[in-house]
Protein: KAD4 kinase
Organism: Onychorhynchus coronatus
Amino acid sequence: MASKLLRAVVLGPPGSGKGTVCERIARSFGLQHLSSGQFLRESLGGGDGECPRGRPVGGSDGTGSCVTDGFGSILAAFLPLIPAPFLCGACTGFPRTLGQAKALDRICELDLVISLNIPFETLKDRLSARWVHPGSGRVYNMDFNPPHVQGIDDLTGEPLVQREDDRPEAVAARLRKYKDAAKPVIELYKSRGILHSFSGTETNKIWPYVYTLLSSKIPPVLSDEEN
């Protein structure tokens, strides 16, 4: 477990690779990956009720839609019940609106915000090729992260589905909605001097820059090459 605590969020549009980046952060810096979708399922009684120990790195909400501002109220009520290390982690996919950002402000002060900027055409292609396991929110991409058996979840053997909003005709509207909602959030963190933006079309090319940034804030437990 890394010795220095860090409060951070990872922002980015649907399909930007937030989950992949957070998994790598978890491995490289001794953090534990906790998706906001998993958090919601456990908070609302849909999970096993057990909270993993460690500092969380969050993921998307697992549904493809933005979690509502009411999620901030759930988070505020839940966090005091979690061991202190949980308060000092990185959460991705949240906050997605200014209301959520203000709710988070009432809980903790962020050290840094990572924003992933991916071109529209790249996002459209990624989302259109994405399929998910409904029960867990596990995501596959038919181009670069396909399941072992087409249409089947690797762990459960259950069928995969394509979300309605991942279908090509819905992607453009979804990205516009994210951009409109996220703009004031990004401006807020930029004005505080804690926003760090990374642009590119491939997560593997963005990741070394994210790793270098975080290494200046918290000691890594794995080198970039080991990840």
